[in-house]
Amino acid sequence: MAMQTHPRPLESGDAAATAPVPLKRILVALDASDHANRALAEAVRLAASAAGTVTGIHAYAAKLHDRRFRQMEGGLPERYREENELERQRVVHDDLITRGLGIISDSYHDDAARVCEAAAVPFRRLSPEGKNYRRLVDAVRSGGFDLLAMGALGLGAVPGTAVGTVCSRVVRRSPIDVLVIRDPARAIGEGPLVVALDGSTRAFGALLTALDLGRRLDAPVHAVAAYDPYFHYVAFNRIAASLSEEAGRVFRFKEQEALHEQIIDAGIARIYQSHLEVARELAAERGATLATRLLDGKPHRAIAAYLEEVGASLVLLGKTGIHADPELDIGGTTENLLLTAPCHLWIGEARFSPPMDVLAGKTVSWTREAEDRLARVPETARGMVRLAILRLAQERGHTVVTASLIEEASTRFCPHFGGDATEESALPWSAAAEELLDRLGDPALGASIRLRAEKRARREGAEVVAPEHVRPFLDSETAPALHWQAAALARLARVPGMVRESVRRRTELLARDRELQEIDLPLLEESLAESRELMQRVMREGGHPSPDGA
Predict the structure, then answer these.
(1) For a 10 Å CB count at each end of the chain, is N or C smaller?
(2) Residues 296 and 222 occupy one common structural domain
(3) Do residue 219 and residue 344 come from a single domain?
């Protein structure tokens, strides 16, 4: 049967690969080995839990056999070298190999179909001709599958081999998650599911997949984070032994060593512990419990020892980690565990980015000066300002927000207010206008109405904000409801939740100010621009100006 392909090829890092893995379309590599049979059994369990489909694939290289036969023709007995007889032998060999390999492939599929039928899981067949690893890679890149299940070893396994060449080659090239079967006698869930975290999006993707699998299989889920506090000690002592006395003074070895032991190693431990705390919070949000442990030592060795200790049935980890570059096909820890893990492996490409506030709450701290400055920002805009600062901190690699970082954020997000630019002076408010605003009793809405009233007063050339500048926006709260066009509603749904309601009310105020009955996408975009301007203003000023303009 010719392999059916899909129109959109899937490359490594495809943005569509988001966690948890849906398990709707599972591909299984078949070869009748014990490892492949266990891969099939696990694929059927998972597909059944998700009302999914299993597709078996077995590639056979008939053309490779044909080329090999031609290469061996020189060694045939003399009676087979007569031209007519040689041509007849070529036809016979080609027919036997092609039909024979096809029959073998069909038998693998027939066995798999019976397993799927017993579990009421739909089964499909792929029997492409060609190099086995290459055809597997073509299939997983087709965009037609969520997960590949395969054995670490196949029929060619020999004692002492941890992973076969086909498995190794496919794992490196697969753009989707791969379940690698290590022990054919053991089912996933007979021991804990263990996730290895390093802060990368693929590691957190593996966490969400593990939580989903734990729920489906009623299995406990653990999370570990491993760091090596001993590397710098060894490296510094080796470096010291090779430095001359003068070079040692220039390098200031003792100070550097103390810096690493007292600050850097402790800081790394804090970072990896924060990954576990984020993981616990994500698990709690999904109604799951998560056992966690911070490990020290060479990561792959520390993780493998933990897997042995708890009797893990599956370890889940990202194919590449936090320090990966675009050209890397597999991370060092994952590559080592592929060879040494005592249990099945789930090597993930699916990604998940924890919400900024969750991640920052565990990984980022604020100096007192920075906290004081943020506290001066009006509550209605504080969430937007805080998010902008945290994004900059993450981009810069900072785990502590300082006042200087807030200054940098202000410069970056408000460039038109930098240098010697003259800022617009604030309009004073009359006591009657302030009283009207105070009656509203909603600080978030009040901040927006304050800015709109000031804008109206400026447009009219007034020297003070009076009640007539405030009242139109207050009266609008009892006016008939506005109609939102579908495109505007869809765009509003993409606004971060913490500011969505504020943006909605600000947009409706803008529509009423212009005496409009309908809100379309351009009007919403204009309102969003005003929201960003508000954020920039409060970041620059540290709070609303007082009524007297001070």
Answers:
(1) C
(2) yes
(3) yes
Residue pair 383/498 in contact (Cβ under 8 Å)? The answer is yes
93 burial class (0-12, 13-18, 19+ CB within 10 angstroms)?
Answer: middle
- Read off the tokens for 305: 């020892």
3-state secondary structure of 483: strand
Supply 367's token pair.
């100096």
Range of the domain at 527: 431-541
Is 160 in the same domain as 102? yes
Angle at 254 between CA 248 and CA 257, to 5 degrees: 115
Q: pTM higher than 0.85, yes or no?
A: no
- Whether 265 is in a domain gets the answer yes
Digit-coded pLDDT (tens) for 478-488: 456 788 898 88
pLDDT at position 286 is 93
- Whether 282 is covered by a domain: the verdict is yes
3-class state of residue 26 by DSSP: strand
Quote the radius of gyration of the chain (alpha carbons, Å): 32
* Dihedral angle sign, alpha carbons of residues 523, 529, 534, 535: positive
Residues constituting the chain: 550
Same domain as 257, residue 207: yes
Are 229 and 352 a contacting pair, CB within 8 Å?
no
Burial classification of residue 294, based on how many CB atoms lie within 10 Å of its CB (0-12 exposed, 13-18 middle, 19 or more buried): middle
CATH code, domain carrying 382: 1.10.8.550
Is residue 10 one of the residues assigned to a domain?
no
Neighbouring CB atoms inside 10 A of 440's CB total 16
> Which of 133-137, 439-443, 486-490 holds the top average pLDDT?
133-137
- Give long-range contacts, CB 8 A cutoff, 24+ apart: 469-475: 469/433, 470/433, 470/436, 470/437, 471/436, 472/512, 472/513, 473/449, 473/509, 473/512, 473/513, 474/436, 474/440, 474/449
Same structural domain for residues 402 and 536? no
Supply the pLDDT for residue 105.
83
Residue type, 458: R
**144 Cβ partners below 8 Å, 6+ apart?**
4, 5, 6, 25, 55
> Which amino acid is it at 345?
L
For the beta sheet containing 221-227, the strands, ordered from the edge strand earlier in sequence to the opposite edge, are 123-126, 53-57, 25-29, 147-151, 177-181, 344-348, 314-318, 193-196, 221-227, 291-296
